[in-house]
Specification:
TIM Barrel, globular, three-stranded antiparallel sheet, alpha/beta, eight-stranded parallel sheet, 370 residues, 2 domains, homodimer, 16 helices
């Protein structure tokens, strides 16, 4: 269930209720592909005020496999995380990582990128998989095509995505009332590449099927920023106000505030954690790479005003030393800081929307981020 | 200052007072070579009940260098660890890691193993270095020779070690009263390879110089276990009761209990952390390697009775999955468990000694460890 709290033009503040609790939106979901957000414990995630984690059905299907996760009592128990989990269907990974991938009407056959073993997954399989995981938010299998793609190809993939979405909804309903009664949610994924008319058509057809939320897939895959914003705008115009909108794979601070001002509610991205492992820290005055020689004798924290564990306990000079000597603790300290920053960012963004000051927040962010 | 609390034959329980607080002995010091115990934060070390950390003067001299640590306000502030620190002089590392190493009476010249830069360190330099770090326990530069070594070579190295020890003590005193008045301690290092008479002679000559504690160096470097125990016994016989004895680079659970029963009070070793990063966990029923296929569906903690963060929060199946997927969190979880186990091990060992049951504890450990 999604409850809209306030609006500032197209920007929204809301609360999404899931089987494992409420999520304040707009929200950011860190990526825990393999049932772990890289370098961090679930206690670290709580310390960073993370509300919901994204895991990947394709990766977890291959390792450790659904049987082990089921026997553990579900994904939450397996990874010891009691707040909401969204699982990506793995469509994107199958299309980008797997070998000898073959799309048929029935589903997709592929070889594991790990050991070459042959697999076949139908849209129904992918729903069952995530239901077995106990994911709070389930994503259906979709066909992901590269950017750029010809319009004919994009239409073909969109049409298949819609047919698979219908089958996914039916499979999800077949699990009812166990799933829906307990607040488990199924989102639809809008595809259509860079063609606004295909996006709009896809959105309308998904709305007819009726999902608990709508994701925008295949965005931020290399297209120009203006085109990305245009697709978001034109698609969201046709999405219902009473359902959350999730922009997959985005983003940077500026992309997120721009998307929120266009009506997006949810994000996931590897940016804060991948950057963290690379020594790049996010601050309210832009990014800084802690490996820089200028930090060698800098005994201030990454961000003077930050209340995160890293900034409360360690200096730039020490963290630089950890990166300089290839010590794993460094990766963790900057990843933790970045997730804390992303949570703070979302708190301030929600406050800005509630106070009808989204534009001012956007302006402040664009001073330091591009 | 070292206070003996109780004895069980040669085994001792005591309290060593340092500038940063008391240490209950026998104690284990995890290795934080580069001002970080690999994969762990200093908060993790507190959670694992660690009393004192060992850092390495040679490594810290090269990176980040003494100036940065001084400017940070000392090593404790640099790494955010407020309990005692012992720094190894780096003698062992200079003799094993550095290139083009040349020993002269004056000191040792070498090239950095990192960038080939030329360096020279005298025994006085090494004391000043550690004094600048603010180390609670300072170790003098010694000449470390390989095992096996001819007796002539061993005598030569022992003699030089003694002459350097005298110069180190003088350098340490030159810093007084700043250092000694604040509880900073200087240990002597007994060398002499596998020759008991050389060890005894070295011990006696170091005692004449008078140190705050006595370390046994160049042990556990490949010699047979019986010979190791013999050297420990014959050396310790000549060491004063009112000073702590530190067996460098040891050890495994069994080696530690055997050494304690021979009068050793302090240990450092990479075993718990290196094994942790390799997936090997210590338990009261021996070691287990969490990567084993038998743990794939094992939803018990590493050790059912363990109160550590890892065992309170995560299953064997999950930790195995982390190792299986090369996720960094796995290294940390097992390292943390192992240090907690080592702390518990020392608590039980101290209790056994206090209750005059060291032999029983030794027997219990030898059932599961060799």
């Amino acid at each position: 269930m999604f409850k809209l709290i306030s609006r500032d033009n197209n920007a929204r503040v809301g609360v999404l209720t899931t089987a494992h609790g409420e999520i304040q939106t707009p929200c950011f979901m860190p990526v825990g592909t393999q049932a772990t957000v890289k370098t961090l414990s679930t206690q670290d995630l709580l310390d960073a005020n993370i509300q919901i984690v994204l895991c990947n059905a394709y990766h977890l299907y291959l390792r450790p496999g659904v049987e082990i996760i089921k026997q553990a009592g579900g994904l939450h128990k397996f990874m010891n995380w009691n707040k909401p989990i969204l699982t990506d269907s793995g469509g994107y990974q199958i299309f980008s990582l797997a070998d000898l991938m073959k799309v048929k009407e029935e589903g997709v056959s592929f070889q594991s990128h790990l050991d070459g073993a042959k697999h076949f997954l139908s849209p129904e399989d992918v729903i069952k998989l995530q239901a077995d995981f106990g994911s709070d938010i389930i994503m259906p299998l979709d066909e992901c095509i590269p950017y750029p793609s010809e319009k004919d190809r994009a239409r073909q993939a969109m049409e298949l995505t819609v047919r698979w979405a219908k089958r996914s909804k039916d499979a999800f309903k077949a699990h009812s009332p166990e799933l829906t009664a307990h607040g488990y949610l199924l989102f639809g994924i809008v595809q259509g590449s860079t063609y606004p008319d295909l996006r709009v058509e896809c959105a309308k057809r998904l709305i007819e099927i009726d999902f608990d939320g709508y994701a925008l897939g295949g965005i931020s895959v290399g297209e120009p920023t203006d085109l990305m914003y245009e697709i978001i705008e034109k698609t969201i115009e046709h999405l219902p106000q009473d359902k959350p909108r999730y922009l997959m794979g985005v983003g940077t601070p500026l992309d997120m505030v721009e998307a929120v001002s266009r009506g997006v509610d949810m994000f996931d991205c590897v940016v804060p954690t991948r950057n963290g492992r690379n020594g790049t820290a996010f601050t309210w005055k832009g990014k800084l790479n802690i490996r820089g020689a200028s930090f060698a004798k800098d005994f201030a924290p990454i961000d003077e005003n930050c209340q995160c564990f890293t900034c409360q306990n360690h200096t730039r000079a020490y963290i630089r030393h950890l990166f300089n000597t290839d010590e794993i603790l460094g990766l963790r300290l900057v990843s933790l800081h970045n997730l804390f920053f992303y949570s703070e960012f979302m708190v301030k963004l929600r406050k800005s929307v509630a106070q009808a000051k989204t534009g001012e927040f956007e302006k402040a962010i664009s001073e330091y981020y591009e």
